[in-house]
Amino acid sequence: MEELCRLLNAGRFISRGKGRHATRVIDSYELILVIAGTLRMFEEESEFALQPGDRLLLRPGLRHGGTAAYEPGLSFYWCHYRPRGEVSRERLDALAGMGKSARPERFSDCFGMLLAEQRDRESGSAGSQRRLDLLGELLLSEAAESCAARPGNEPDPLAERARRYIKLHYEESISTASLAGELRCHPDYLGRLYRKNFGISVTDEINRVRVAAACRALRETGKSVKEIAFEAGFNDLAYFRRRFFRECGLSPARYRAERDGEHVNTE
């Protein structure tokens, strides 16, 4: 039987625009997948600028931390592994470093399943360590499919302009076509360029930024889910609920009620 890595814990970080990743040395491997924004980090002498769809596997015993403050709207998944033997250690070492996910939506969905299983285990229901380990292996499989990326790689200027526009206007009625009109380019070209640079579609980026805004409102206000959905730019409440569950692995109401115990962390 293949030697599985032990999945220690996992979560999702959502930034409020304060602080930076702590500088530290840990005794486990840490896998990070960026969902929105740019995460700037270092490991020893290497520096990384992780964009949406990028993943990074940090190694134990090496100093790592942030090189810049967290930007508002930054969101990333994280999990920690510990090898059970030399075979699993070698597999983790082979994945160390940065890469661009070949299937970022699938990668994100796998993290969502892992967090749901972790919540079940913590609540005393059917979750088990073996299922956590198997889901952790699924994440490592997705990480292995990623394309190599150079540390500090900067996105295409047009793609970066599109991303900034989305961050500033996500609550408006925007689409790939309207965004392309603002940037004076063809929608198909913009869609291909955005996916090439950030690993996700323009539509997925818009929805992820909107969900991140909804998460902030759920944490920080007493507004209803319907109010929050419309203020974040969603015109269809049912669609908002589906997108929210896809991004966060739970419903908006459960996110609000149980966020303190679900490893959704901020600065």
Automatic annotation (TrEMBL):
<dbReference type="InterPro" id="IPR003313">
    <property type="entry name" value="AraC-bd"/>
</dbReference>
<dbReference type="GO" id="GO:0003700">
    <property type="term" value="F:DNA-binding transcription factor activity"/>
</dbReference>
<dbReference type="GO" id="GO:0043565">
    <property type="term" value="F:sequence-specific DNA binding"/>
</dbReference>
<dbReference type="InterPro" id="IPR009057">
    <property type="entry name" value="Homeodomain-like_sf"/>
</dbReference>
<dbReference type="InterPro" id="IPR037923">
    <property type="entry name" value="HTH-like"/>
</dbReference>
<feature type="domain" description="HTH araC/xylS-type">
    <location>
        <begin position="160"/>
        <end position="258"/>
    </location>
</feature>
<dbReference type="Pfam" id="PF02311">
    <property type="entry name" value="AraC_binding"/>
</dbReference>
<protein>
    <submittedName>
        <fullName>AraC family transcriptional regulator</fullName>
    </submittedName>
</protein>
<dbReference type="Pfam" id="PF12833">
    <property type="entry name" value="HTH_18"/>
</dbReference>
<keyword id="KW-0804">Transcription</keyword>
<keyword id="KW-0238">DNA-binding</keyword>
<dbReference type="InterPro" id="IPR020449">
    <property type="entry name" value="Tscrpt_reg_AraC-type_HTH"/>
</dbReference>
<dbReference type="InterPro" id="IPR018060">
    <property type="entry name" value="HTH_AraC"/>
</dbReference>
<keyword id="KW-0805">Transcription regulation</keyword>
